[in-house]
Amino acid sequence: MSIFELVYKVRDIMTDGFVKVCSNETIENALNKMMQSYRNEVLIMDDDEKLIGIFTMKDAIRIRNMGISFKDFVIKYASKDVSTIDCNSSARYARDLMIKKNIGRLPVVENNHIIGIITNNNFRDIFYIKMDELFKLQNYVFDNLHEGVCMCDEKGIVKYWNKASERVYGVKLNNILNRYIGDFFPNAMLLKVLNTEKRIDNVFHEPVKGKFVVLSAFPIYNSDKKLVAVVSTDRDMTDEVNLTKQLEDEKKKVEFFKDAYKNELSSKYNFSFIIGKNKKIIDAISIAQKVAPTSTSVLITGNSGTGKEVFAKAIHKASERTGSFVAINCSAIPVNLFESELFGYVEGAFTGAIKKGKIGKFELANKGTLFLDEIGDMPMEMQAKLLRVLQDGVIYRLGSEKSIITNTRIISATNKNLNELISEGKFREDLFYRLAVVQIKLPDLKDRREDIRDLSNLFFRQVSKDEGIEINYIDEKIYKILADYKWDGNIRELKNVIQRMVVLSNDGKITVKSIPEYIRNENIRNYEYNDENKYDLQKITENIERKTIEKVMKMVHGNKNKAAKILNIKRSTLYYKLSKFK
């Protein structure tokens, strides 16, 4: 069997641009379709899409000369003894069949359906094109192998030397081709195979000083069993040595960061670092401390920025679980990637999958804690799959039927009302009960204003240390201003504000001017931080006037003319007051 027969099938040389007509169509219709498609034939199909005949341009000329009307049915004058060939047959067999039956066209079938056609006109061209492609493919393959490939004749003269051999040994093809291999590599293993006529496999070898390879070589015989050549493949082990060293270095880095992460959890995310005098936060800490040593699922609720992940990490640290803390934000993952992110996937599971697959978050958190943030945004389909995992403790990587048992503790968090989502059909009730065995609700920062001073001081210390900026003075007034602010972003917003104040501080001093202007303006509008002005009628009047103008300006989207009319004042007066109140 030739290489052409082995590699190329009928489907490789056929054309799928064939034309079909129904048995009840006229000759005229068939001719029109042939001319429109630049074809010399049409395939005639019955009502079940079965091939029942072939009509060619040659047939059309013949019936025209016979004086037959082109309005007649095409099936009457078609060739009905039609041979077909399976698409997986060899190209050589197709050619032989056409010669044997003396036919110029051969329809191609797959599962009893026509999918293409081979014609005599283009077979020869396609055959030679494919042979040329095959030779190019062969050279392309050998030149792109990682291993060096060398072939010598029975006298040790180099007849083939691929690009990898050039890279491995630094010897160009033009310099070594048709030269004796021993002139370049005196101890070449090819010479040993030529002498012994025995193959060697996967031996470590040093062809030249300082160059180590893993080498295999084998003899080639002709039909008379005479040795005519020998071929070797050499793999440069420098890559493997470097890769092994790199893996060792990366392993050390992973261990270092793993220890550093654990130390971070220990130093920053234990319960002693959760500051609070407020009763609600004290109650939350108490529940978290009690549930931490268990394997119970915990649901932490609260608005954005209230510290849900801080609590989750503290629970994990106090649990003494040996595995890692792995967090995943359910609102940030595209729906079509959810399953692969949680459970991982094997190689070839889907288009774009990483070679060798990817481990999922459940496996990463084995013997540790998986933190599912924003659980209320998890798609319904994934909720069902998550429920099954929580029930069985078994996961399956995407594209694999192999089960993986995990011992993963689940802590979830949300800023949404899951009971409302359940009533709306957007969250599974049975999953809710699995996740919310213990619930911890965190209060907003505005509901625990007594903690703002201590939290501010904590963040001042942390940011100062992280940024390397020493703070030696903090104005007492800032605590009152910060305590009176609304803090829609909760603790996260407070920390960001403190960070801004520290990095923009002058001479290590934090003053009222260090506070962002929007907070100071809000404080002025509320006008409650200065007790001695509490009963100042002029200040109170100005405050009411300011709030009223601000409300009307927002209502009319900044249209001063409309605002003046609603406020029943002159436009010039409005301009004055806008300037006055900034």
From TrEMBL:
<dbReference type="InterPro" id="IPR000644">
    <property type="entry name" value="CBS_dom"/>
</dbReference>
<dbReference type="InterPro" id="IPR035965">
    <property type="entry name" value="PAS-like_dom_sf"/>
</dbReference>
<dbReference type="InterPro" id="IPR002197">
    <property type="entry name" value="HTH_Fis"/>
</dbReference>
<dbReference type="InterPro" id="IPR002078">
    <property type="entry name" value="Sigma_54_int"/>
</dbReference>
<keyword id="KW-0805">Transcription regulation</keyword>
<feature type="domain" description="CBS">
    <location>
        <begin position="78"/>
        <end position="133"/>
    </location>
</feature>
<dbReference type="Pfam" id="PF02954">
    <property type="entry name" value="HTH_8"/>
</dbReference>
<feature type="domain" description="Sigma-54 factor interaction">
    <location>
        <begin position="274"/>
        <end position="503"/>
    </location>
</feature>
<keyword id="KW-0804">Transcription</keyword>
<dbReference type="InterPro" id="IPR048106">
    <property type="entry name" value="PrdR-like"/>
</dbReference>
<dbReference type="InterPro" id="IPR025943">
    <property type="entry name" value="Sigma_54_int_dom_ATP-bd_2"/>
</dbReference>
<protein>
    <submittedName>
        <fullName>Sigma 54-interacting transcriptional regulator</fullName>
    </submittedName>
</protein>
<feature type="domain" description="PAS">
    <location>
        <begin position="141"/>
        <end position="179"/>
    </location>
</feature>
<dbReference type="InterPro" id="IPR046342">
    <property type="entry name" value="CBS_dom_sf"/>
</dbReference>
<dbReference type="Pfam" id="PF00158">
    <property type="entry name" value="Sigma54_activat"/>
</dbReference>
<keyword id="KW-0129">CBS domain</keyword>
<dbReference type="InterPro" id="IPR013656">
    <property type="entry name" value="PAS_4"/>
</dbReference>
<feature type="domain" description="CBS">
    <location>
        <begin position="14"/>
        <end position="70"/>
    </location>
</feature>
<dbReference type="Pfam" id="PF00571">
    <property type="entry name" value="CBS"/>
</dbReference>
<dbReference type="InterPro" id="IPR003593">
    <property type="entry name" value="AAA+_ATPase"/>
</dbReference>
<keyword id="KW-0067">ATP-binding</keyword>
<dbReference type="InterPro" id="IPR009057">
    <property type="entry name" value="Homeodomain-like_sf"/>
</dbReference>
<keyword id="KW-0547">Nucleotide-binding</keyword>
<dbReference type="InterPro" id="IPR027417">
    <property type="entry name" value="P-loop_NTPase"/>
</dbReference>
<dbReference type="Pfam" id="PF25601">
    <property type="entry name" value="AAA_lid_14"/>
</dbReference>
<dbReference type="InterPro" id="IPR000014">
    <property type="entry name" value="PAS"/>
</dbReference>
<dbReference type="InterPro" id="IPR058031">
    <property type="entry name" value="AAA_lid_NorR"/>
</dbReference>
<dbReference type="Pfam" id="PF08448">
    <property type="entry name" value="PAS_4"/>
</dbReference>
